[in-house]
């Protein structure tokens, strides 16, 4: 799900062969408690309708996002290794976009309210309640996985667990694309989308994300950082990877 703050659009693409800087932020810090996860779920249940209405047409003004999603869709459909999971799908906005590109896509989200909104808006697609930490999917089931700002409420210390689970459910050769906030900070939101809520939001260094994906056994294919748009405060990061065959 896209968190409060949106996504930036001015692309800066480092060469694929450029060496990576060393990771400046170790994977440390507390893991989320049961109460933290419940607060995230409840918050998105509360804002589901407002969130879906506000972001319904967001991709129309996001050519970079559409281009990256098109590249991912082409990779997944060409490989033809199975259905594509939009993991942390929110109200199904990106799931529906992938389906419009010919992808056999379905969505999973922690929030029952978001899943209900997704089913209402996209009755022809499948959406299920579930956690990206423990997906109810067989090993190697997915022909592609999307983590579109799905980890912004996940502390860095828990990212290895998320990426290991994604590796488990991806078929050998299947692609992954992830989008996230780039940086080294966290904030606690108490109001967004016209509602009171409780959400912890994390910014993560690009080098940390790519290193952790690599450690999970995934091969990095491309990475990109977009500078903040005028109304935004942080860069956005995108990584495409795949599980090796």
Automatic annotation (TrEMBL):
<dbReference type="InterPro" id="IPR041698">
    <property type="entry name" value="Methyltransf_25"/>
</dbReference>
<dbReference type="InterPro" id="IPR029063">
    <property type="entry name" value="SAM-dependent_MTases_sf"/>
</dbReference>
<keyword id="KW-0808">Transferase</keyword>
<protein>
    <submittedName>
        <fullName>Methyltransferase family protein</fullName>
    </submittedName>
</protein>
<dbReference type="GO" id="GO:0032259">
    <property type="term" value="P:methylation"/>
</dbReference>
<feature type="domain" description="Methyltransferase">
    <location>
        <begin position="86"/>
        <end position="173"/>
    </location>
</feature>
<dbReference type="GO" id="GO:0008168">
    <property type="term" value="F:methyltransferase activity"/>
</dbReference>
<keyword id="KW-0489">Methyltransferase</keyword>
<feature type="compositionally biased region" description="Low complexity">
    <location>
        <begin position="1"/>
        <end position="27"/>
    </location>
</feature>
<dbReference type="Pfam" id="PF13649">
    <property type="entry name" value="Methyltransf_25"/>
</dbReference>
<feature type="region of interest" description="Disordered">
    <location>
        <begin position="1"/>
        <end position="29"/>
    </location>
</feature>
